[in-house]
Each structure stands twice: as structure tokens, then as C-alpha cells.
Amino acid sequence: MGTFNNIIRFLFKIFLSAETRDKTEKVILTIAIVSFFLHLAFIFLVQLKVLELPFESDLLENPISAAYTPFSFILIYEVYLLIYYLPKSFTTYITKQNEIITLIIIRKLFKDLSALELSSEWFEIKGDLQFTYDLLGSLLLFYLIF
Question: Which of the given ranges, 2-16, 106-120, 124-138, has the highest pLDDT on average?
Fold first, then answer.
């Protein structure tokens, strides 16, 4: 039983310590920034026809969609924080759940923003209507978190 407790303490120290959280935050932030610029570079290389891809992707058509990538990595970090705060504070755990939902919607907003069709039939275009719903939902979630 003592060996099992030692293993649990060791794993806890590796994955759920404040030091690991701080290091993970710095790594994820660096990855998010680098991935944003790489995504932008891929978009411009595809637009300049320097890079030919054998597939079509909405994420490589508009520079606004490059914001989708860092939000994906930040979302991974938020899931880690959700696990990190679970044994520490139930209130913080619930707040993290709301933050994750908000990040998912914001990430989707950037993806939808890059494919937005600006026209007078705003409420008749399914994608534009979904963007409106997501925008209103994210504002509501921001208010709830605040």
C-alpha cells in the first residue's frame, strides 16, 4: 500500500503541481504563438501559389482563420487546468468548465468569421445565422463568467 501511495504522490507532483502548471502554461503559450504564425505563413504560401495542397481547407483560405489554431492549443491547456483544479476547488472547476465552453465557441467564431458572407440576406444564409448565434452565445458566456 505504501508503494502505491508513493506512486500516486509522484504522479501528482509530475502532473498536478503548481510548478508543472506554470511550465505547461509557458509551453502552451509559446506553441500557440508559433502555431499562429505558422498557420498565417501556410495561408500566405497557399494564396501566393508557392505551396500547392492536394486538398481543400477552409482554414487555409482566410488569414482570420489563423486565430483558430492558437485557440485550439489554449483549449488543451484549459482542459489541463480543469483537471488541475478538480481536487483543489469545486468553484474554480465549474468556472473552468464555463471558460472551456466559451473558448470552444470563440474558436468556432474565428472559423466561421473567415467564411462569412456579407450580404443583405444575413438571416437567410445558414452560416451567417450560425455565426450570429455563436456570437450571442459567447457574449452571454462572457457575461456569466464575469
Answer: 2-16
